[in-house]
Every structure is written in C-alpha cells, then in structure tokens.
C-alpha cells in the first residue's frame, strides 16, 4: 500500500475491515503480521487452521457492495 498522506493506508485498512465485517466477511488474509494488523486483532495461524477457516468462510454468505432495493 502507498499513500501521499502519512498513515493513509492504515486508515484505509481500518475502513476496509469494517466494511467487510458489516457485510458478513469472517476472514481477512493480511499475509503479513505487523504492529498495525496486530492492533486490529490480526494474528498468525497455522496453514491447517487457515485452510479450515477458509473453508468455513467460503460457506458463509457475504457481499462486498451495497444491496440494491
């Protein structure tokens, strides 16, 4: 990520997490754990646990955009 405003990418990541959570997402693969993702609840998990959680997440209904009426 990059930004022209200091910490702008961190703010964007926080908003993305919230956007996804509100729409039913239960798994976010940040790929790298750092202080920021850890402060948001991120943690390292084993490959086996990741694959298990991924399977469960794929079974859930989730959407990215707003639903149209």
Write the layout of secondary structure elements.
Elements (H helix, E strand, L loop, with lengths): L7 H15 L12 H5 L7 H13 L10
Describe this structure in words.
The chain is mainly alpha-helical. The N and C termini lie far apart (34 Å). It contains three helices and no strands. The mean pLDDT is 85. The longest helix has 15 residues, at 8-22. The chain is 48% helix and 0% strand.
What's the short story on this structure?
The chain is built from three helices and no strands. The protein is an all-alpha fold and 69 residues long.
Which characteristics define this entry?
single chain; 69 residues; mainly alpha
How many DSSP helices?
3
Mean pLDDT, nearest integer?
A: 85
Could you say how many structural domains there are in total?
Answer: 1
Main structural class: mainly alpha
Q: Which overall shape is indicated by the principal axes computed on the Cα atoms?
A: flat
List unreliable stretches of 5+ residues: none
Extended strand count: 0
- The Rg value, from CA coordinates, equals 14 Å
β-sheet strand percentage: under 5%
Helix content: 40-55%
Written as H for each helix and E for each strand, in order along the chain, the element string is HHH
The major sheet is characterized as: none
Distance between the termini: 34 Å
């Amino acid at each position: 990520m990059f930004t022209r405003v200091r910490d702008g990418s961190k703010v964007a990541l926080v908003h993305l997490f919230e956007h996804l959570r509100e729409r039913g997402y239960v798994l976010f693969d940040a790929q790298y754990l750092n202080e920021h993702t850890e402060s948001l609840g991120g943690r390292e998990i084993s490959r086996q646990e990741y694959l298990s959680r991924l399977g469960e997440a794929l079974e859930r209904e989730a959407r990215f955009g707003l639903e149209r009426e």
